[in-house]
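Fold Annotation — chain and its backbone
Next Lines — sequence and tokenised fold

***
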Amino acid sequence: MKRIFSGAQPTGNLHLGNYLGALRNWTQLQHEYESFFCIVDLHALTQPQNPQSLITKTKELAKLYLAAGIDPTVSTIFIQSDVAEHTELTWLLNCQTRIGELERMTQFKEKGRNTERESTGVGLLDYPVLMAADILLYQTDLVPVGEDQKQHLELTRDLAQRFNRDYGETFRIPEPFIPKAGARIMSLSDPTKKMAKSDVDPSGSIGLLDDADIVTRKFKRAVTDSGTEIKFDNTRPAITNLLTIYALLTNQTNEQVENNFAGKGYGQLKSELSEACIAFLQPFQERFHNITDEHLRDILTGGARRARESASQTLDTVKERLGIVGARGI
């Protein structure tokens, strides 16, 4: 069976866009591929974090994975820092990576734009190499990624191909999986921007743990376009975004959604969208709150053990190819 690997940072608040663009696909893909889903806490350290908050958010994210339908008896769910092979392979790949490749990464240029070069953390520059190690450790075939991570995956492929060329076939070359629908859910307050966990405007996203009143209020305040017709139209991003969310939550086609709202106004759209979202979130949140810390710890401990078994095999091969054999090879 082919493998998939993906993960999310335990920062900010996981939102509806994360579910519709990623988690929903993970739950489907886990039955088609051998699946590794990681909480990438080491990646979170590229920005300053409150230690206690990081612990809380790590636990919260793991529970959200489970509430979304990631099955620990089918998939491997684990915390990145529990598998030391991630950081060790990162160093080995660092030695195969050119500085220019990292400096050209779009996310590095964007996040470091307002920061003096001398004060930019090395972790921010090296983030894509750690991501490459995450993926390559598990001999991954398919990586569910958003468009914003596609460049990083290209670097991962380049590093794998370079290593295979120089040291012999070692890594599988991963392919991206980018869903056609729901890959980019946009902000409710600014439909030109992706719905984001780090958005300073909380009204722009629907948190997976938001209660019914908050959900209703956020959709009520969602921006709309000029005109009154409710149809999918790339020139009207705000309405198209709301319709896309509705279609994904109700499993309707675009045509069915347009027929449903024919002759209706924006108020009716927002009201029905709120109802559909609340109907989805209520059982999701019940599953989240029913997961005990003890049960979660058992799942993550078992997941880390399975992840290490796979990761150690790849790392041992890489080290042997590089001549890093330690005392056992002397």
Q: What stands out?
A: The mean pLDDT is 92. The two ends are 37 Å apart (CA to CA). The chain has 13 helices and five strands. The first helix runs from residue 16 to 29.
